[in-house]
From TrEMBL:
Keywords per UniProt: Membrane, Transmembrane, Transmembrane helix, Transport
Principal place of residence: membrane
Record-given protein name: (rape) hypothetical protein
InterPro entries membership: EmrE-like, Sugar_P_trans_dom, TPT_transporter
Source species, domain of life: Eukaryota
Domain Sugar phosphate transporter, chain residue ranges per copy: 24-298
Species whose genome carries this gene: Brassica napus
TM stretches of this protein: 42-62, 74-97, 224-246, 258-275, 281-300
One GO cellular component term noted in the UniProt record for this chain: membrane
UniProt membrane topology term: Multi-pass membrane protein
PANTHER family in alphabetical order: SOLUTE CARRIER FAMILY 35
Length: 347
């Protein structure tokens, strides 16, 4: 019976990762067509993120109204604080991309892994084995090889990048801690924060986009093709947002960052297949190193769990399993969205 539960849990874990990867890669492809100059030229990434959260909030309200999901109490100040951190993350990522080179932007995203590790150590006293640390370094090196090109930075861009890395890391850690603190599922938490994020992004988003692009969204000539891409992007964003919260609730912010780089590999591959992007030996070798690092990371985490199980007294181990079971029953997370392409996680 216990083995069946473990097998079912493993299947649902794989399903959560699969949903996140498919929806994240899909939204990048949709936004690439929507926002590129060769597509529909919709250059309002922050406002688009507001649309994403508006639809997510609507789905949450319908789910609560029909009884498909329950609504537990979370203090309003915690919801507001979390929403502010999440919105700062989105805006800072956009500004970082605008002010810095793509190479430095990619480096700043890679730095989220060690930053998340340090923050989890400071906030939750979490420790990592040597194998886990080594595998994280392999992933960082691999993704760096296949994504980082020119590296240029200025003072304003550096401040924006630091703000983006800190706020995004804090947001992802907070998703897991809030779910555990109030015993709420991922969708319940998302349905409470999405309306606040949607309202604030739809109010301030057009002004942020004007600062970034020099154009107001009211000047954009909407077409049926653009409307279709926006609706597709919003639909994918709902699954992307839900799966992001789901993954972080089940695993950790560090695991989400490490295994989330599989999306980078998928995006590069699909860009080469669908959009004639250049695929060099450097890209291929970097992707191979990154995938090897992800495999090693999965092995290292499993090894760490086995060591902890052996070193923990039986009575305490049983109590921990019960606690974990209770937490998982309460848990149903623009990469961060890839803001340069307008993805919603991680736009």
């Amino acid at each position: 019976m216990e083995s069946e539960k473990k097998q079912s849990s493993s299947v649902s874990d794989v399903g959560a990762w699969g949903m996140n990867i498919v929806s994240s890669v899909g939204i990048i492809m949709a936004n690439k067509q929507l926002m590129s100059s060769s597509g529909f030229g919709f250059s309002f990434a922050t406002t688009l993120t507001g649309f994403h959260f508006a639809l997510t909030a609507l789905v949450g309200m319908v789910s609560n109204a029909t009884g498909l999901s329950a609504s537990k109490h979370i203090p309003l100040w915690e919801l507001l604080w979390f929403s502010i951190v999440a919105n700062v993350s989105i805006a800072a990522m956009n500004f970082s991309l605008m002010l810095n080179s793509v190479g430095f932007y990619q480096i700043s995203k890679l730095s989220m892994i060690p930053v998340v590790c340090v923050m989890e150590w400071i906030l939750h006293s979490k420790h990592y084995s040597r194998e886990v640390k080594a595998s994280v370094m392999v992933v960082v090196v691999g993704v760096g090889i296949c994504t980082v090109t020119d590296v240029k930075v200025n003072a304003k861009g550096f401040i924006c990048a630091c703000t983006a890395v800190f706020s995004t890391s804090l947001q992802q850690i907070s998703i897991g801690s809030l779910q555990k603190k109030y015993s709420v599922g991922s969708f319940e938490l998302l349905s409470k924060t999405a309306p606040i994020q949607a309202l604030s992004l739809l109010i301030f988003g057009p002004f942020v986009d004007y600062f970034l692009s020099g154009k107001f969204i009211t000047t954009y000539q909407m077409t049926y093709g653009a409307i279709f891409c926006i609706l597709l992007s919003c639909a994918l964003a709902v699954f992307c947002n839900i799966s992001q919260y789901l993954c972080i609730g089940r695993f950790s912010a560090t695991s989400f960052q490490v295994l989330g780089h599989m999306k980078t590999v998928c995006v590069l591959t699909l860009g080469w297949l669908l959009f004639d992007s250049e695929m060099t030996f450097k890209n291929i070798s970097g992707m191979v190193v990154a995938v090897v690092g992800m495999v090693i990371y999965s092995w290292a985490v499993d090894l760490e769990k086995q060591r902890n199980a052996k070193s923990t007294p039986h009575g305490k181990n049983s109590m921990t399993e019960d606690e974990i079971k209770l937490l998982k029953e309460g848990i149903e997370h623009i990469d961060l969205k890839d803001v340069e392409l307008g993805e919603t996680t991680k736009v």
